[in-house]
Structures are given as C-alpha cells and as structure tokens.
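Researcher: Good morning. I'm working through a list of sequences from a screen, and I'd like to move beyond sequence-only analysis. For each chain I'm collecting a predicted structure so we can compare shapes side by side. This is the next one on the list. No need for commentary yet; just the structure.
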Amino acid sequence: MVAIVDEAPAAQYLYPEFLLAQRLFERHGIAALICEAKDLTLCHGGLWHEDMRIDLVYNRLTDFALAQPQHAALRQAYVDGSVVVTPHPRAHALYADKRNLVALADEGLLRSWGVAAETVAVLADVIPRTERVAADRADDLWARRRSLFFKPAAGFGSKAAYRGDKITRRVFEEVLAGDYVAQALVPPSTVQAVVDGMACELKLDVRCYAYAGSIQLVAARLWQGQTTNFRTPGGGFAKVTMA
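Model: Good morning. Structure tokens for this chain:
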C-alpha cells in the first residue's frame, strides 16, 4: 500500500497531481490512498492508516525534517525502517537544503577538500555566490542588498524569498532573525509569448528532474514578478523542446 501524504491534501493547490499519482499507481496494480500525516499510526511493527498497513509513503510534506509533533509517527517509522519514505529527510539535507550552496559556491573550500579542478570550475560557473545570513553581518548585507537574493535555507516554492532591491527594512530584520542564505542576484532568462492574443515577455527557468543520477524530465517554468509562481496569466509549466 502506498500513501500519498500531505497536510490537508484536498486543500492543496496541487491536489489534482496527487490524484494523478494515485491513478498511476493503481493502473500498475498498486493500491494507493491520499491522507494526512497526522492520521498515520505506528503499531504492530509498522505504519498504518486505519486498518491498512503502509509500505511506502510518497511524501509531499514541507516539514522536511518531519520535526512537527503531528508527524511523529511518520518520522519514527522512517527512522526505524518500518516504512519507505520518499523523498525523506536525509535526501532533503543532502540535496535541497540551501545551506549546502554556501559550500558548493566556495572554490577555496572545495579545493581544500580535494575536489577535482574541473568540478570546481563547473560549480563556479553554475552556482551563484552564496553566503549565510547572520545578524553580525547586517550592515554589510544591507549595503549590498541590491545585488543579492535572500532565500530561507529550508524554503520551497519561492515562499519568503526576497529580491534585495525590493526588500524593506522591516522584512530585512525578519530575514536576519530567520535561517537564510543570500545569493548573488542572477537575472532570469526571458521568452516572448502570446497570452490571450497579446504579446508579452515572461521570465523562465529550466528544471531538470533527476533520479539515481540520471535526468528523467526537463521542464520550464514561466512567470512574471519577483519569484516563480502559478498565478501569472500564461505562466506555469512549459514544454522544453531540444533543438
């Protein structure tokens, strides 16, 4: 049994995606349910939802460390190996925590670790300079804010992310009090599009979805505004055509 897990799943913006995943599993003969993490229980040596034992959790929670009290059963099942969780806290810590970018963008540190020169060069070329935000560096960061983009270390979906040239002093104080990184501002690429019969310019980024070291899917995101979003008319996901 597969459980597709989130908080209040039916209220999520991407709930239709949960339904598609459920149907995909069922089409391949795998029973799947959609439920809240708080409704899972740990008993009889496994993770259960009512009278159904769960074998795999397709985790859509944004509590990436499963640290919130209502996720205690799921976390314990993951820790003791009684259920497979994907993606899981260790994967987020290794691949998604933005604090890792501080090290990956530090050429001197990478060289001291013995990372190959070719790899250091590639990382320097593709990762904007990233630094931790700390209160004792407030004056320096504020002075350079127009060239920076502030992101929460465990953030997702562009939430609570701020362009430095748009940030107010009040919000900057909140950033200092939070767990943030600051990245060198890199202007996004743009593409000309026609929306409702009108020509317009949309920002874009290209995302590679990978598994086990191999790219499975390439897609673009189109938007207008400070950060990526699904609200821009004509925006959202777009097909990438290889020339």
